[in-house]
Design brief:
127 residues, alpha+beta, Aspartate Aminotransferase, domain 1, 22% strand
Length: 127
């Protein structure tokens, strides 16, 4: 079953995108699951993936970001995963990119995100 999201996703990362968007205050806005022949600069090469997202502090986003970072650091593939902060420009907002390389498993990371999210009740995420 594919997620109910307002955009198309590469099949290998839809579970990861769904799990990220399940965190309060987290909204993804672009992603790529890797392509054997990237046709544009926005496409990742095969064996890599990326999901770009915003974290909204007043909607639980900072706490969610802490949990996402914990899931990455507790993953058995933490050496293949990164979270990067970047700016859309103009100094008005920051965005985040969760990326995998060297054949990192986006489904495995999605499972770790689901596990860590369920260890906290909704009240702790809304702080």
């Amino acid at each position: 079953m594919e997620p109910d999201l307002p955009f198309d996703l590469d099949p290998n990362i839809w579970r990861l995108v769904r799990e990220l968007n399940a965190f309060p205050g987290i909204t993804s806005f672009s992603s790529c699951g890797g392509h054997s022949r990237p046709e544009s600069p926005s496409q990742c090469p095969a064996g890599t993936f990326e999901v770009n997202f915003n974290a909204y502090p007043l909607r639980g986003g900072w706490r969610s970001l802490e949990l996402i970072a914990s899931a990455v650091s507790e993953s058995g593939e933490r050496d293949k995963l990164t979270i990067t902060v970047w700016s859309m420009g103009g100094g008005t907002s920051v965005c985040f990119e969760l990326a995998g390389r060297d054949q990192a498993d986006p489904d495995g990371l999605a499972e770790e995100l689901a596990r860590i999210r369920t260890t906290f009740d909704d009240d702790s995420l809304d702080e």
